[in-house]
Structures are given as structure tokens and as C-alpha cells.
Design goal:
HAD-like_hydrolase_sf, six-stranded parallel sheet, HAD_sf, 231 residues, hydrolase activity, 10 helices
């Protein structure tokens, strides 16, 4: 088990807390991600990838995912080029993406029940905050954090800092991370939290099931599992 954020008092003193992932979880953007990925691949001569193949091979860190596709690790220059192209194409396509079915209603229900929730994404922080605000859901979260620093890595240390910032409000033992990637479960484990993984994003169900946590097909099921895990 990884590090816990410092909180005072018993975990029983805290209500259940959700840490939501953004891309592929609250935001239904997997088609934009695939399109932007293929645009980046085209720049260095890699064949386009289907959604099914993407979900089968996807992993973090992202260069490792590219290695699975290319048969070798990308060079530093290739990675830099692909990363820049991906984000440029993604920004263009993201505008046409909506929230995942039921997301806004579930966020409202959780808050009205007197429970807290926050958002942690590996999307760049300075872009994430206005994007979330643009979807009209920012007020549901007590904290919104995106990635700072280089892209392509794991969420674990970001999760550690996120929960440290919520010390006194959320206890790791009463926190459930809802995301679409195995890395979300690893980040949850790192801080002593639970996780529920959603099949609508980056991974196949078979890949998600390797994490050893509940795997669901809807966000409604994810919230129901979170309630069960923190009961």
C-alpha cells in the first residue's frame, strides 16, 4: 500500500468521497482520442488503430503503449512530435464531445446526499479547469486538479497531492476513485483508497479486470459500487 495523505481523526468521521477521472469517464471523448491518436500516428508512418485495438493495448506510461504498437519504444523526438500532434488534434475534436450519459445527474445526486467529490485528471491543468467550467459542472467539485509537469506518466503522485490538498475534508479510507484506466486503480491503491473502473473509455473490460477492482459498464453502476464500498 502506498502513502496516505495526512488527515486527523478516524476515517468514520468523514463522509464518502469520490475522485472522478475526466477523459473517458465523465467526458465521453473516446472517439476524439482515437481520431487524435491516429493523426499523431500518421505523422511517423504508423497505421491507424481501431477503438477495439486501442482498448486492448492501451497502458500507462503512454510511451509504453506506443511501444506495443510500434514494436519498439519511440525516440524522444518521435514522442515529442506525437504528443504535440495528439493534443492539437484532440483540442479540435474535444469541442464536439458531451458528458457521459447520466454524469450530470449523478454528480448532483451525490452532492445533494451530503457527500463530497473532486476531479483529478491527467489532462493539463491550465486547460482542464476552463473545459470543466464550460460543461457547467465545476460547482459539483470541491477541488479540480489537472496534470502539471510532463505528459505520459502515471497518476499515482498526482493522486497523492490531490488527497493531501483535501486533508481534513476527505479520508483516503472513505474515498473511491472512479476512472476508465488501470492506472486509476493503481493511483487509488497508492493512497489507500478504493477504485471502480468504467468500461466506456480507454480500456477493454478484460484489461480493466486485471486491476482486481469492480468493473462496471455505466457511471450509475460505478456510483452504486462506490456507495457499497464505503458503507
Amino acid at each position: 500500500m502506498g502513502k496516505h495523505s495526512g488527515t486527523s481523526g478516524s476515517s468514520d468521521d468523514y463522509s464518502a468521497h469520490l475522485v472522478w477521472d475526466w477523459n473517458g469517464t465523465l467526458l465521453d471523448d473516446v472517439t476524439a482520442v482515437i481520431s487524435a491518436t491516429n493523426a499523431a500516428f500518421a505523422e511517423i508512418g504508423i497505421e491507424p488503430i481501431t477503438l477495439e485495438r486501442y482498448r486492448e493495448l492501451y497502458c500507462v506510461p503512454i510511451p509504453k503503449f506506443y511501444e506495443r504498437l510500434m514494436g519498439r519504444m519511440p525516440t524522444d523526438l518521435e514522442w515529442e512530435v506525437m504528443d504535440q500532434i495528439f493534443h492539437r488534434h484532440y483540442r479540435e475534436r474535444r469541442a464536439g464531445c458531451g458528458l457521459t450519459a447520466g454524469a450530470e445527474e449523478l454528480l448532483g445526486q451525490w452532492g445533494r446526499a451530503g457527500r463530497s467529490q473532486s476531479l483529478l485528471s491527467m489532462y493539463m491543468h491550465h486547460e482542464l479547469v476552463p473545459v470543466v467550467r464550460g460543461y457547467g459542472i465545476e460547482s459539483h467539485f470541491i477541488r479540480v486538479d489537472g496534470r502539471t509537469g510532463p505528459s505520459g506518466g502515471s497518476k499515482a503522485l498526482h493522486m497523492e497531492r490531490h488527497l493531501e490538498a483535501l486533508a481534513g475534508t476527505a479520508s483516503p479510507e472513505r474515498t473511491v476513485v472512479i476512472g476508465d484506466a488501470v492506472d486509476d486503480a493503481l493511483a487509488a491503491e497508492h493512497v489507500g483508497a478504493r477504485a471502480v473502473l468504467y468500461t466506456g473509455g480507454s480500456h477493454s473490460r478484460a484489461s480493466l479486470e486485471t486491476a482486481g477492482v469492480p468493473v462496471v459498464d455505466t457511471l450509475e453502476e460505478a456510483v452504486a459500487e462506490a456507495i457499497r464500498l464505503t458503507a
